[in-house]
Amino acid sequence: MAENSRGAAPQPPSTKRQTEPYGVLTRRQTLGALAALTATTAVACSNTSHPGTARNAPAHPAVPPGGEPFAAVTGNGRGLLLQVLAHPDDDLYFMNPDTQQQLRAGSGIVNVYVTAGEAAGVNRPIGTRRDAVTPDKPAYSAARHQGLRQAYAELLGMDRFTRWQRRVIDLPGVPAGSLRAESNELVSGNRRVQLIFLNIAMLSENLVRLPQLWDTPDVRANTLAAADSPLQETFHYRHETLVAVLAGLMDRFRPTVIHTLDPDPDFQVHDREHPKDNDQPGCSDHRDHTPVAQFTWKAISQWVTAATRRDGRAPRFLTTAFRGYYNQRWPHNLPPALVEQKARLVEAYGGSPDWQCGVAAGCGDYSQGGDRPLHNRKGWIRSTHYRYPGTLPALTTDGRGRVVAYGVLGTQAVRWQETAPRSGRFGAPRNLGGGPLAPTLCAVEDTAGRQSLFALRFSALEGQGRADTREIVVLEQRSPDGAFRAWRSLGTPEDDAESGRRVGCPVAVATPDGRVHLYARTARKGIATRIRDAAGRWGPWQTVERPPALEGVADSEEIQDGLTVVLDREKRICLFGTGRYTVHHWRQEEPGGPLVWRTAARIPASGDQPGAAFADDGSLTLVYRPPADARPYLYRLPAGGPLTSPEDPAFGAQPVGLRHFEGYGPLTAHSVRGPGGKDTLLLAGKTLDGEIQLRWVTLGKDSEGRAAAGARPLRSPAQLVPVGNPALLPGGPDRACVVGVSPTATPWIWRPAPTSKA
Asked: Keyword annotations for this protein (predicted)?
């Protein structure tokens, strides 16, 4: 993050705000603006100039499909997190609390900061006029580096002014000694943090910025020497140089988890309701965040290819990409306790000119000091959104009852299988190839018992004016528990490559008629579908009906990525997506029919993907946390008919808050048979400290639901910290299990027993 500005404290959307006109664009104007944006200003958003590609044209993956075994777990059972950032503080704003939780779980951390973060060189304390501070880019870069040292010292539980080991290192991936960078290291017991500053200038000679370095052939960017750095020599980077250095650092450190920024931020109409602020034109992110993420994903592909060919084994690691200024545009999804944790670290990073840190250039990024991040109207600190939402892994069982987990390991699809039914142990991962894939995928089983995997692939990541494309791909089983066919491209629902990059993660559901229904969020923040018939033939992409816009609220029909799809008791498809002001619901009126928007009245918005499950009586339970709330709520919806307001008597039970189930992030819900054969809701989610909790809630009358809502959840063993969101495999009281993947890139199974109160 860079080039910040101050503002008032953010406020959640109120009912009044949702319904009264703003004097902004109408829905028709918004859709027209988005269409024009796709056609004419996408170049400004991503700085690409290659021609568009046909919507279903197959593309060549940047990494050949794999099949090699994965490398063994290394590092004495401890993970290593590698984060690649555009600016100092991107990690603190956009990647926490995940960073903090992985450090707590025992992972080491290596952060690579690509730019010097010098901006205009003005390190302005809060309340000081801009013209009262003399610009000094080397000093501002050095002050931001010191701010990071202060923040990570606090994260390690040490004094913020602890002295770090600072030295100059040769960078890998290029001829020895040709490029160097400053490295800072701090160790506390068995925990270690290393900060590496490449310090490429945000604005180089000839007005070269990172977007040009990504997309324009034959340009180069120069580094900036920070004021107090032990490295005062400057260097030049070309496109291929930066890719090689990032890939070389990955090969040197062998991370088990890689955090990146968002390579494909949402298109964004900038108007009075959504001012441009620090966004790049036409997108909801900073102009440096996007190319740094693209460079990182290209480097990941280059590393995987080179290491696999050299070692005969594919690197074993997970990836997570984080949204950036997207946090400003959607409901906040972190509860106050986690916001306060993030704020303490940002406060340490921001520092103050009154601090005595021993660095003459400055003791932090003063504009971020104090409680300023909590009062910034942009609210970046109040959310942590994954670019590719979903569970990790996707679960099913084989014919013998063994748990089968599908995920993405080393950017390739992977299949883990339990060694024996209920053994609680997975065998070696099987590489299914298909990469480079986004971090999450969807697995479904059709009526014949054949499994299909759906994923989003980086089909081209070339830069320099050449192809940069994404596509949805599928891997289909020939027979139950049998071999898979070759990966197949399903294209995207978009007509051009720039829009295709904004497509969301695929979700799918199989219906009793033998068909498989695939859904994905579109670049215009709607939904598209593609259907495979019983004979295995895929139909074309089609759009799903958009919700009507609230009067005067131009973007009220838009949805976030992270769709939930389930079948009701009549085997009709129900689809849920969270918008800015409500959770939207689509449903088939009859099995096999089209999806119809059925949200007759608004139910409260959600900060994350909602969970949904049907009871035997046909009623539906939605479960999610309202924005900025730690407590989830159950919304019982009647069988059949449109969804109505919770205040309507026909709604059924009033919303039930689940006490003792505080946490954050999405929840997974399944209807199961509980003790005594009662219809029971099984819920799984993360606690405030990132561990797992599980609840059985008896469904029925209000009194029963409210009584069960007070039961204590089960907590996972402390060592079972997941990367991302874990998956839940439903079953009776003694059959349910939670599966996650640890920071060492190895999966685990937790089979708890239910509480007596549930």
From this structure: Zinc
What residue segments make up the domains of the chain, in order of their start?
81-382
Residue where the block lists tokens 């999804």: 333
**CA atoms of 492 and 458, how far apart (whole Å):** 12
Measured CA to CA in angstroms, residue 667 lies from 46, 85, 606, 617 at distances of 33, 29, 11, 22
Task: Calculate what percentage of the chain has a pLDDT beyond 90.
Answer: 73
- H or E segment at 123? none
User: Cα(first)–Cα(last) distance of the chain, in Å?
Assistant: 45
pLDDT of residue 63: 55
Cβ proximity of 24 and 552 under 8 Å: yes
Average the pLDDT over 193-219 and give the result. Answer: 96
Residue that wins the pLDDT comparison between 75 and 653? 75
In this predicted model, which residue has the larger pLDDT, 274 or 98?
A: 98
Which DSSP string do the residues of 86-135 spell out, in sequence order? SSTTHHHHHTTTHHHHHHHTT-EEEEEEEE---TTS--PPTT--GGGS--
Residue 393: asked if its preceding bond is cis (omega within 30°), the reply is yes
Q: What is the dihedral of CA 594, 600, 605, 607, to 10 degrees?
A: -10
In angstroms, the CA 460 to CA 580 distance is 32
Where does residue 718 rank: exposed (0-12), middle (13-18), buried (19+ CB within 10 A)?
exposed
What is the arithmetic mean of pLDDT over 520-542?
97
Which of 294, 652, 235, 257 minimizes the C-alpha distance to 470? 294
> What letter does residue 37 receive in the DSSP assignment?
I
The tokens for 56 are 């279903």
Model pLDDT, residue 646? 56
Most confident of 24-38, 76-90, 502-516: 502-516
What residues have CB less than 8 Å from 337, skipping those under 6 apart? 630, 688
Q: Which amino acid is at 306?
A: A
Q: Which of 86, 87, 82 is nearest to 102 (CA)?
A: 82
Report how far residue 546's alpha carbon sits from residue 577's, in angstroms, rounded to the nearest whole number.
11
Residue with tokens 């020895």: 176
| Per-residue H/E/C for 370-391 | CCHHHHCCCCHHHCCCECCCCE
Q: Looking at domain 81-382, which of 3.10.530, 3.50.50, 1.10.3470, 3.40.50 is its CATH number?
A: 3.40.50
Q: Which residue has the tokens 């960073």?
A: 99
Q: How far apart are CA 362 and CA 149, in angstroms?
A: 12
The whole-number average pLDDT for the span 682-696 is 93
Element containing residue 296 per DSSP (H, E): helix 289-311
pLDDT tens, position by position, 557-600 = 999 999 999 999 899 999 999 999 999 999 999 999 999 998 76
Lowest mean pLDDT among 30-39, 140-149, 323-332, 563-572: 30-39
Mean pLDDT across the chain: 88
**Beta strands 108-115 and 191-200: pairing type?**
parallel
Greatest distance between any 2 Cα atoms in the chain: 74
| Inter-residue contact 346 to 373 (CB < 8 Å) | yes
pLDDT tens sequence across 424-461:
999 999 999 999 999 999 999 999 999 999 999 999 99
Question: Could you tell me the two tokens for 465?
Answer: 């004016």
